[in-house]
Amino acid sequence: MWYPFRPRPPLVALVRLDGLIAARTGPFGGLNAAGANPILERAFGLKRLQAVFLAINSPGGSPVQSSLIARRIRQLAEEKKVPVIAVAEDAAASGGYWIACAADEIIADPASILGSIGVISSGFGFQEAIGRLGIERRVRTAGSEKSTGDPFRPQSPEDEARMEELLTQLHAEFKNWVRARRGARLKAPEEELFTGRFWIGRRALELGLCDGLGDVTSEARRRFGEKVRIVAIGARRRRFPMSLLPGAGALLAAGALGVAEERSAWGRLGL
After folding, report:
1. Residue span of the structural domain in which 211 resides
2. Is residue 241 part of a domain?
């Protein structure tokens, strides 16, 4: 017998959020609000949408960009009344975990890295090096704190105190977000969870940092059946080779620096 109106399979959107989170991304990728927002809007705009899956693979980065992306995810989820499931791949750490907490549920691979609920600032001091080279540093400021963090002069106790205060405030924002999104699902004291430490997925599940173990395909099928249709939504590809673009050399140089910075961020996770 022929049935002219066959039921359509459930449809879910898949958005990949990959790379170091930074205000500016290089030619080799990265993640920020300006790039993620159009992709998220296309995903949530699909008709007959049952859920949005976020495949997160990030070692973290900018707290502001992490917050902006997470906030947009919540706005769209509430506007469209669609559940959001984050799936951690290699890592949803630091800013990556900040974004994951925007989902209604977090799923991870048993070997994924989750957590790193902390804030870091690092740099170098070159004041002795320029002295040995016979270089005189000439800086004039209007404002007693304008040159805070200058790598060519010694760090004062006042500079250290100001940086400590800034990091403490940013850490408080991160902790408040995790509390608001995970709430009673957290199963360990904050003194253990909010130190900047990170864990593999299986242990993160025990601590309440995620809600289950799995991957995008198996989780979509478990929730919506074997015939579920997964629609991947991503950034549009470049139409021309980068070598033909004006300023390609500068782009490649900036990209190399970005790759080094991202490699460093992954290295802090041991990946």
Report:
1. 11-119+182-267
2. yes
Backbone angles phi, psi at 237, to 5 degrees: -75, 155
Q: Where are the beta strands (DSSP E) in 131-224?
A: 198-200, 212-213
- DSSP for 33-94 reads HHHHHHHHHHHHT-TTEEEEEEEEEE--B-HHHHHHHHHHHHHHHHHHT--EEEEEEEEEET
User: Could you give the number of structural domains in the chain?
Assistant: 1
Q: Among 257, 268, 233, 192, which Cα is nearest to 35's?
A: 233
Q: 271: which residues sit within 8 A by CB, 6+ positions away?
A: 59, 90, 91, 113
Tens digit of pLDDT for each residue in 24-69? 775 556 899 999 999 999 999 999 999 999 999 999 999 999 999 9
Task: Assess if residue 144 is contained within a domain.
Answer: no
Q: What token pair was written down for 83? A: 């559940």
Tokens representing residue 225 in the block: 């059946």
Return the number of other C-beta atoms located less than 10 Å from residue 1's C-beta. 2
Q: Tell me the pLDDT tens digit for each residue of 115-133.
A: 999 987 766 666 666 667 7
pLDDT beneath 50: ranges in the chain: 1, 237-240, 242, 244, 248, 250-254, 256
The pairing of strands 113-115 and 84-93 is parallel
